Amino acid sequence: MCGPTIVSTAINPEESESSSSSSSTVDNTVGSKAPLDIVLEQPSLFSRYMCASIMVTIFGVWGKIAFFGHGNEESNAPGIGSKIHSWKIPLSLTVSYLFALPILRFLSKKYLSQTVDVKTLLKETMVIYNFGQVVVNGWMIYRFIDALVHKGHPFIGDLYTVNSGATFAVYIHYMDKYLEFFDTFFMVLRGRMDQVSFLHIYHHVSIAWAWWFAMVCYPGGDAYFGALLNSCIHVMMYSYYTLSLLKFSCPWKRYLTQAQLLQFTSVVVYTAISFVIVYRAGNAQPKHYACFVVQTFEMVSLFFLFMRFYSNAYAKKRKEQQQNASSEDGSIPEQTSISSESSEEAASTKKSSGEVKKDL
């Protein structure tokens, strides 16, 4: 066993990781209770690698179902040679996802976070997960580009092409939406409930249903575009998380927010142009128009929710900067519980250790 980590029970679980380095203060006032220190044992290498091996197994099972669950021929894959599974599958998986969150929260808060350093316990597991997502999404980008450049897949205005390889990548992209549930699971297990926002949960649930609907009604043709852009964003994001966990700097970190907003806007514009083209051609069916509506609603709703999240985060950052400036001028900032120096140090520690997880 490695050396123990000491944290104070007076610290909120969501703030424990950023505040564990600061010493707890004992109030000797009559009637007050001094915070009790709990010794958190550092997890053994065996337990860390056991968690990592479980993640590898999950990837293996997912890969077998996604890539080979229809046989070894892509021509038999859903959307190409067969139909996608019924609505009962996304319903059961998304409902299970929602029910799992409070259960994991309870286990983490009452047991796991009280006995072991969860951040260290899950480090290798999260490295494997994030790197695996980079590989999967990178593979999808390759298949989409290969279909466009070498397999004759039309760039826009197509509804029915399914044999270029792009539709199979769309199917894998849909299946990956369920694997991405682990984004939230890791947040909850590590006590980062401040990151489990409505935007985050809405995105994971709604995007799974949106892509299932696309696989039912419109798996070919222009359906590839949204999956291609989303895969590019995910390569950037999961690469950043992997590098952060390994304590490496990421040069494109500052561009992630702009890239996400550009993704939403580009998909809406592409969908509108595609709609006009297929409408004029007169070869679309009602199900195709339904997919246009679902795609547009999903992207627009995410755009506005993400803009709201981004605006609130920016406003909070501006307020903190103003408070720091007031402190330097000798005035007392409003409602500050810790010093500006310790706040900046905690934020720096979170960023360098990769604690800040995505909302998209």
Short description:
This protein is an all-alpha fold. Helix content is 65%, strand content 3%.
Could you characterize what this model shows?
The protein has helices spanning 16-19, 45-68, 88-115, 118-121, 123-149, 166-179, 181-189, 198-217, 224-245, 256-281, 286-328, 340-353, and strands spanning 4-8, 37-41. With 360 residues, the protein is mainly alpha-helical. Residues 1-36 and 331-360 have low confidence and may be disordered. It has a two-stranded antiparallel ribbon with strand order 1-2. The radius of gyration is 23 Å and the shape is globular.
Order of helices and strands: EHEHHHHHHHHHHH
Q: What is the overall number of helices?
A: 12
Helical proportion, percent range: 55-70%
Catalogue the unreliable spans: 1-36, 331-360
Global morphology: globular
Give the SSE layout:
Layout: E1 4-8, H1 16-19, E2 37-41, H2 45-68, H3 88-115, H4 118-121, H5 123-149, H6 166-179, H7 181-189, H8 198-217, H9 224-245, H10 256-281, H11 286-328, H12 340-353
Antiparallel strand pairs: 1-2
Helix pairs in contact: 2-5, 2-6, 3-7, 3-8, 5-6, 5-9, 6-8, 6-9, 8-11, 9-10, 10-11
Name some characteristics of this structure.
360 residues; EC 2.3.1.-; mainly alpha; 2 domains; 65% helix; lipid metabolism; two-stranded antiparallel sheet; 12 helices; lipid biosynthesis
